[in-house]
Design brief:
Distance between the termini: 86 Å
Number of helices: 23
Shape: elongated
Radius of gyration: 30 Å
Oligomer: single chain
Strand order of the largest sheet: 18-15-14-19-20-22-21
Strand content: 15-25%
Structural class: alpha+beta
Number of strands: 22
């Protein structure tokens, strides 16, 4: 047994795994240091394992369910838990689950590898997870009433709770003294015997329902299978010389040895919109986690999606183009994560040459192979979103590329998964073991999942769904554009109170479809899993685009590592930004809490909708729009509901910074003034129907902007900005130059001019013109500044309400003028 001091030293040395991704160092990864390489086989827990390692049946053909004739193990289907189910069926499934874990962990070389701190410092060492799955069986069986006491209080305390990566820089949580590995093996043996006894002799009966105590048994197996997969990811993050592929583990897909240079041609396919019904029926006869139950019906518009998952070959183009160094492609949180980790390529790519050569190998769970260009890329959600933005900038599609949504993913799946006539067997994970999952023999077993292989596979290796889409399940998980969220009627399971609810925080992203390691519920059509966007899993993505995005977005209860608002702004300027945030994004009750209060709180969206409506009525194309004097961008985003490209320009850097933050994150926290010294924190959200990538914000002077820089626009909105300019006529001359022939301009103005902002000689109205009549009106000054090529289409009055504090408001009726440029 090592001393506490020696264990702490091992946890802090660079070579122990701290701070640097070992997959970035090919030589060290393959060879190790001389000290590590010497006498490796002399260590305890070397490979192959001593027979005492196996605390269950062991991976023996005929003794362990799921063993194949070639000596490898695969997953068997989830057992029948209807009235026709048998205890032996449940026991076989448990034995298969238990042995899969021990086969996976048998690939770790030496006890030191079990206590090695992960390089990113965000998860526990492997020792924890090896014991944790046993602890959860014990704890859940105690809650269900099957066990009166625990088995070992020490283990059931230190190995009870796992880690959620709350932030990518939340480091240094792993310094503790772990028990000897032999003690953990002994504990697992006791747990195995207790679970077997509970299955075969416990006081329970079929069918097993969500409210039955026996639900704890199958909850234990599905929890273990989650950690089978997440542990395989952690092993994939260890230096390759510290692991070896167990002979019983499924073989990698042969394409990585035969034709890694082969590429797969991707394309977008149209998907007809339709009704999507989310949620697993409560009486469906298989296990489900609490977030799967409940319901939601969504009408999804037609869209396009890539028929394949994005491949290593496609992502390599992004890497070669410098995508990791271009700030514009990344969200705020994504860019901060990228800079913090100094990432320049995906985490499982292994450089095979100097930086800039862009030659890579691929780290599998246990092996390193040539980078298979036709396999799906493994990346996190930040990297996936950056790729979508980069690809949009390359292709300039009608609607920007984005991650597919949960509802859209349901529409590209094989229709067999929603065929109610199939009963429980519409869930293919209840029908096929891994050995039959990828054969395609029955039309609904076209997936690299259930451990059909020990790795990913080419995206075109298996037949597509009847909708034409490949790998709708399996191969790698698919990041979506949805925040992890509860369905209507969601209820917490009394057996696992905190499985889902802590993650309904707007900071976890839904992943769907499962991976090659996913088994049973993980890859079920009902599965809805979630991880932080910086988390690395066997996960990739496919792209989608369309006129709307039905993703479900929740308020963020934190920042995913990104800073929130500009803390370095001057307090006075920040107060102005906060007031603008209330005007642009405040809900009516946030602005006017009285039902009979004045109208005009929604002025920002009203004038944007006015421009859109008048353009449609007059046959003006809805292609490009300019929001000049956009402030914090509320009207800019509203225009993006109808225009595929919208530019927002404002002279204030603080305003544009706020608008860009909302574009990146979908929301922004600001402070609303209630009374002097009394502020209320409000979270402003953009309507999730808005494709934020349609919008771009720039700081510029409205009196000098040029079509040579920004191009011309079909529609321009100039809302209550003229009165704040020193030379409004110059701005209108620029508007004239920026408007395409036949285009439309909406100008709103309260027609109040002040010496403090605009010299009297530059006023557009409000002065005597020498005619003895009414004097010059602002609308006449606007027309003169626009020039003779514009005609006035319409004038209307629009109420505008601005909240100053809880009981103080500014209310005015502005004059909106609609102008059409002659073709």
């Amino acid at each position: 047994t090592r001393s506490k001091e020696s264990r702490t030293m091992a946890a802090k040395t660079i070579d122990s795994g701290a701070f640097r991704n070992p997959n970035r160092d090919l030589y060290v990864n393959l060879m190790g240091t001389k000290k590590q390489a010497e006498g490796e086989q002399k260590k305890a827990f070397s490979y192959p394992r001593d027979p005492s390692w196996w605390t269950g049946p062991g991976p023996v053909v005929g003794a362990c369910p799921g063993m194949l004739e070639d000596g490898t193990i695969t997953s068997i289907p989830f057992p029948d838990i209807t009235a026709e189910g048998t205890r032996q069926g449940v026991l076989d499934y448990f034995k298969n689950t238990w042995t899969l874990t021990e086969v996976l962990f048998s690939g770790l070389l030496g006890e030191d590898t079990f206590t090695r701190t992960p390089w990113h410092q965000l998860r526990h060492p492997m020792m924890f997870y090896f014991g944790h799955v046993g602890v959860v069986y014990v704890n859940k069986l105690r809650v269900a009433g099957f066990l009166k006491d625990g088995i070992d209080d020490r283990f059931e305390q230190i190995m009870e709770t796992g880690v959620d990566e709350m932030s990518w820089d939340d480091l240094s949580k792993n310094e503790m003294e772990w028990p000897p590995l032999q003690d953990v093996v002994g504990y697992r043996k006791k747990v195995y015997d207790a679970v077997c006894s509970c299955i075969m002799e416990g006081d329970w009966s079929f069918p097993i329902k969500t409210t039955d105590p026996a639900w704890a048994i199958v909850m234990g197996t599905e929890h273990e299978r989650i950690h089978l997969e997440t542990s395989s990811v952690l092993i994939r993050e260890l230096p390759a010389h510290l692991v070896t592929k167990p002979k019983e583990w499924p073989t990698a897909h042969p394409s990585c040895f035969s034709s890694p240079e082969k590429r797969a041609e991707n394309a977008f396919l149209p998907v007809k919109g339709g009704t999507v019904n989310l949620g697993k029926p409560l009486d469906f006869p298989s296990f489900g986690w609490d977030n799967e139950y409940g319901s939601r019906t969504v009408e999804v518009e037609s869209f396009h999606a890539s028929k394949h998952l994005i491949t290593n070959g496609e992502f390599l183009d992004f890497v070669k183009s410098g995508g990791y160094t271009q700030r514009d492609y990344w969200t705020e949180a994504g860019w901060q994560w990228r800079r913090f980790r100094n990432v320049l390529f995906p985490t499982f790519w292994v450089p095979d040459g100097p930086v800039g050569l862009h030659q890579y190998k691929l780290r599998l769970i246990f092996e390193i192979v040539s980078l298979p260009l036709s396999w799906p890329v493994d990346c996190n959600a930040h990297e996936a979103a950056a790729y979508c933005n980069w690809k949009s900038s390359m292709d300039r599609p009608a609607h920007p590329y984005r991650l597919i949504s949960e509802c859209e993913h349901n529409l590209i799946r094989h229709s067999a998964t929603t065929d109610l006539s199939k009963g429980r067997l519409r869930d293919f994970t209840l029908k096929y073991p891994g050995s039959e999952m990828s054969t395609g023999s029955n039309g609904d077993n076209n997936y690299n999942t259930q451990l059909a292989f020990g790795s990913s596979s080419p995206v075109d290796a298996l037949p597509p769904s009847d909708k034409g889409f490949f790998d709708t399940f399996g191969n790698v998980w698919q990041w979506t554009s949805d925040d992890f969220n509860p369905l209507d009627g969601f209820e917490v399971s009394p057996l696992y109170l905190d499985f889902s609810t802590p993650c309904f925080d707007g900071l976890h992203t839904i992943i769907l479809g499962g991976s090659f390691v996913s088994t049973s519920d993980l890859c079920s059509p009902f599965s809805r899993f979630h991880f932080r966007p910086h988390f690395h899993q066997h996960a990739g993505f496919r792209m989608a685009y369309g006129p709307s995005n039905p993703a479900k977005i929740l308020p963020k209860q934190g920042t995913n590592g990104a800073s929130v608002s500009n803390s370095d702004s001057q307090p006075q300027q920040q107060a102005v930004v906060n007031q603008a945030m209330t005007s642009h994004y405040g809900l009516r009750l946030d602005v006017v809490p009285w039902e009979n209060g004045p109208q005009g709180a929604n002025f920002v969206t009203t004038i944007a909708d006015l421009l859109t409506a008048k353009a449609k009525k007059n046959g003006v194309p809805l292609t490009r729009a300019l929001d000049l004097g956009c402030a914090v961008g509320g009207s800019t985003f509203q225009l993006a509901l109808s225009f595929p490209e919208v530019v927002g320009i404002d002279a204030s850097p603080s305003m544009v910074d706020a608008a860009n933050e909302i574009k990146r994150e979908g929301q922004r926290t600001y402070l609303r003034l209630d009374e002097d010294g009394v502020l209320t924190e409000i979270v402003a959200n953009v309507d999730n129907m808005v494709e934020r990538t349609r919008v771009s914000f720039f700081v510029d002077d409205a009196t000098s902007i040029s079509p040579a820089v920004y191009g011309v626009f079909d529609c321009i909105l100039l809302a209550n900005a003229l009165e704040g300019m020193s030379n409004p006529a110059a701005a209108l001359e620029r508007v004239s130059a920026l408007t395409s022939p036949g285009g439309m301009v909406v100008v709103t103005c309260c027609n109040a001019w002040y010496h403090s902002t605009t010299p009297r000689a530059q006023w557009l109205g409000g002065f005597e013109d020498g005619s003895g009549g009414e004097g010059s009106k602002t609308v006449q000054g606007i027309q003169a500044a626009l020039g003779g090529s514009f005609e006035l289409v319409e004038k209307c009055d629009v109420p505008r309400l601005q909240r100053i504090h809880a009981r103080g408001y500014s209310w005015e009726v502005v004059e909106a003028t609609v102008w059409r440029k002659r073709a």
